[in-house]
Design goal:
alpha/beta; 5-stranded parallel beta sheet; 5 helices
Length: about 120
């Protein structure tokens, strides 16, 4: 079963997103912080990560850089509450396959997650 790791979403947004993804046939694990994300990455071996950047940008970037070092090809769906050009540039640097500013249309996000999971399940060279 395709598996995604959802990180740093506040409730009830996290619960709603997880329910939507499960309803689409995905297995979902959630975590609240960077430590949980990295532990989940090692334990869960997800096909994709969905991450919400909010709060301290430097902290988020540090976590995401570690994620990229540990899993350079893992598809990343990156959402933010910050519309700045700097954040958009950082999303490109992090090789996010999808980036958008919250709020995101649920159907649009679901399509992005499906594409990320598909990419994550492709054989890796």
């Amino acid at each position: 079963m395709p598996h995604v790791l959802v990180s740093r979403f506040p409730d009830p947004l996290e619960s709603d997103l997880a329910a939507t993804l499960r309803g689409d046939g995905l297995s979902v694990a959630t975590c609240r912080d960077g430590e949980g994300l990295l532990e989940g990455l090692l334990r869960e071996h997800p096909d994709a990560v969905i991450y919400l950047m909010h709060g301290a940008l430097d902290e988020d970037l540090g976590i995401l850089r570690l994620l990229r070092r540990a899993a350079p090809n893992l598809p990343l769906v990156l959402l933010t509450e910050d519309e700045s050009l700097d954040v958009r540039r950082r999303a490109v640097d992090l090789k996010a396959i999808f980036f958008d500013v919250m709020p995101v249309e649920p159907a649009h996000l679901l399509e992005a997650v499906r594409a990320a999971v598909h990419r994550g399940r492709l054989p890796r060279a």
